[in-house]
Amino acid sequence: MTCRHPNIQRNEKKRKEKLLDLRPPTIGSLPPSLDIPSPPSKKPQAHHISESTLLNLFKSQQDHLNYFFPNLDLSQALSFTETLLNSRGTIFFSGVGKSGFVANKISQTLVSLGIRSSFLSPLDALHGDIGALSSADILVLFSKSGSTEELLRLVPCARAKGVYLISVTSVSNNALANACDMNVHLPLERELCPFDLAPVTSTAIQMVFGDTVAIALMGAKNLTKEQYAANHPAGRIGKSLIFKVKDVMKKQDELPVCKEGDLIMDQLVELTSKGCGCLLVIDEDYHLLGTFTDGDLRRTLKASGEAIFKLTVGEMCNRKPRTIGAEAMAVEAMQKMESPPSPVQFLPVIDHQNVLIGIVTLHGLVSAGL
Known about the structure:
Blueprint: H1 6-22, H2 51-71, H3 74-85, E1 91-95, H4 98-112, E2 117-119, H5 122-125, E3 138-142, H6 149-160, E4 164-169, H7 175-179, E5 182-185, H8 202-220, H9 225-230, H10 236-242, H11 245-248, E6 257-259, H12 268-273, E7 278-282, E8 288-293, H13 294-304, H14 313-316, H15 330-338, E9 346-350, E10 356-361, H16 362-367
Parallel strand pairs: 1-2, 1-3, 3-4, 4-5, 6-7
Antiparallel strand pairs: 7-8, 9-10
Helix pairs in contact: 3-8, 4-8
GO biological process, one term: carbohydrate metabolic process
Site (Catalytically relevant): 98, 150, 191, 232
InterPro entries: CBS_dom, CBS_dom_sf, KdsD/KpsF-type, SIS_dom, SIS_dom_sf, SIS_Kpsf
């Protein structure tokens, strides 16, 4: 057997030790001096605001808004309103940031009043949307400072299209006002923000101004309630002024009809299957004779017992039910159902000759959004 030289054995030992040092340490072999972060022992402290602090903020905002009204130049506001009223084209609104949101909202309010209006993004305008402008149009630019760069870049391009330019600002002698054909100054005492930076009072003033002008235009154009409703057909206001009974009533095969000589017990399926909670009693010519409800059924059963099997609908029906015409407004039907002495869940719909043509139910009115 050959023996290794002592120096070779020492070198191999050192090499093995180095290899062991290069291995990643296991959790159990971490040195005790290494600091491992421990999970936080306490939850982050919750922030609170006192009722008095909130009340003071509301009062301060009220004071800032109250500064606006007596200091507004009514001659400017009137000129602005009359200019919009006499517009031959579309009234465009534009703005950046929070003022842009306000401008968009005011534009939508005018649209809901039947006035041609639209919001024009200043950025998109410079990339093609300015093509919507014509010489008959008005462009209203909302900016608190009047130095909004995007609006200042838009002005010469819009002017080249022959548009009438109006700025609505809150800082005196600003660049935007000087570049436009008309300026409306909205007096601003200061922002509610403690740093006087966040636009929370200035935007409120813009909204108040724009919406008030919108209502002035509404009055000047003599917009009727019916015309307003026609612009809101999906809303409850519109439905209440547009929908008639004939638009929401059940008719023909949907009607739970029977003859006065029919036995009550023979008509239970008809009473329950049509979802109206009643029977409409008619003669051979479809004239309405009365109504019989599921409530009448319960009362008859309680009072008559087994005798109910021999009773006819005509013997127990209500001969003087509330009725309504097909041309009546649907909201009138709801009011009639809820009127004294006691509310009802349905109204038979008849023509001028007392011929049954339909039924309107409370459930149907509610489902229609009324």
